[in-house]
Amino acid sequence: MFIWCFPIIFFLLVSHTVSVPILHHGRCKVNANIGYCQHREICWESDVELDSFSRSQCSSNTRKDLVCCRRQSQNISSTFHVSKSTNNELIPQPGVCGGSPLNNRIYAGEKVHIQEFGWAALLFYSYDDTEYTPMCGGSLINKRWILTAAHCVFHRHDGSVVNHIRARLGEWDTRSTPDCQEFLVGDRVCAPPHIELNIDLIKAHELYEHSNWINDIALLRLNRSVYYTDYVIPICLPPAKQTYADDYAGYAMDIVGWGKTAEAQFSGSTIKMKASLDVISTPDCVRTHKKLFFGQMCAGGQTPQSTCKGDSGGALMLMNTSYSIPTYFAIGIISLGPQSCVGSRSPNIFTRVEFYMPWVMDTMHANS
């Protein structure tokens, strides 16, 4: 029998009530306004409004009767509890973390806006501290710490801990610095140069097991604090929850990255990309993956391409639309993905962040 054990938590956690994230299957547009692809029966708009031609179309191979539903100006009444720590430096709160700029610029394909997902970190590895290679991703969660997968900090050939890791933040296009993005309307946005920092402490979960991907979570401490900018911000963390339920089954969540993985080398992308994945219930997931453990969840597999857009160790992100600025939370960490991107429709396994929040907070507190 596997026994879960967590140290004493040094934080006082309280919760405040905000609106529950909207269940949707991607973003769309209603005139110049943001909308969400939802089932017709749960959209608040009337059928007459929904059938108008002033909104983009939602389509899905697995979801029928999706409509583009305009975002409500008023919050819905359900509740979603977000942790408040007594130390907001360690656990940034909405308003500081997870912000995603919304604008009316149009950009092609699945490239992210140059300001989107400012917490996405590209992790570089070296055996000798001379030549560094991008191998995994991670997420900035405060000024000193990056959240990633435990399998990203061990060498594949002998299982030893990687000694030399650097984290790049504020990256968009790996071919250029500074990065500039051209839009179809003719304007151009440029970002400041990315920053690259050494990792001075690696903390993988003490009970990580590569054979079954249990406890696939790690924290990396930057050698200095970063300053938050429009291009470098932390992602929000969910409240701790150690009971398991398929709370997110059916939700659309996002992954982002350059297609780097420690387990299989795809050609990847030079530009940061994103994809939307549907979370899959445990019964549906175990049809492909024979067993899921506490602390694991499944998403993706609806299309062969989407599972290869993110990076190992990157975040599975839920967008909470109840704030004045839509706010992203790290719900999962990309753990086990496909070994090939050709024709794969197998769902990914993710580490459930909320299950490990006691470990995350205690580890940061003890080493900050």
UniProtKB/TrEMBL annotation:
<keyword id="KW-0645">Protease</keyword>
<dbReference type="InterPro" id="IPR001314">
    <property type="entry name" value="Peptidase_S1A"/>
</dbReference>
<keyword id="KW-0732">Signal</keyword>
<dbReference type="InterPro" id="IPR009003">
    <property type="entry name" value="Peptidase_S1_PA"/>
</dbReference>
<keyword id="KW-0479">Metal-binding</keyword>
<keyword id="KW-1015">Disulfide bond</keyword>
<keyword id="KW-0378">Hydrolase</keyword>
<dbReference type="InterPro" id="IPR001254">
    <property type="entry name" value="Trypsin_dom"/>
</dbReference>
<dbReference type="InterPro" id="IPR051487">
    <property type="entry name" value="Ser/Thr_Proteases_Immune/Dev"/>
</dbReference>
<keyword id="KW-0865">Zymogen</keyword>
<dbReference type="InterPro" id="IPR043504">
    <property type="entry name" value="Peptidase_S1_PA_chymotrypsin"/>
</dbReference>
<keyword id="KW-0720">Serine protease</keyword>
<dbReference type="GO" id="GO:0004252">
    <property type="term" value="F:serine-type endopeptidase activity"/>
</dbReference>
<dbReference type="InterPro" id="IPR033116">
    <property type="entry name" value="TRYPSIN_SER"/>
</dbReference>
<feature type="domain" description="Peptidase S1">
    <location>
        <begin position="96"/>
        <end position="365"/>
    </location>
</feature>
<protein>
    <submittedName>
        <fullName>Serine protease easter-like isoform X1</fullName>
    </submittedName>
</protein>
<dbReference type="GO" id="GO:0006508">
    <property type="term" value="P:proteolysis"/>
</dbReference>
<dbReference type="InterPro" id="IPR018114">
    <property type="entry name" value="TRYPSIN_HIS"/>
</dbReference>
<comment type="similarity">
    <text>Belongs to the peptidase S1 family. CLIP subfamily.</text>
</comment>
<dbReference type="Pfam" id="PF00089">
    <property type="entry name" value="Trypsin"/>
</dbReference>
<keyword id="KW-0106">Calcium</keyword>
<keyword id="KW-0325">Glycoprotein</keyword>
<dbReference type="GO" id="GO:0046872">
    <property type="term" value="F:metal ion binding"/>
</dbReference>
<feature type="signal peptide">
    <location>
        <begin position="1"/>
        <end position="19"/>
    </location>
</feature>
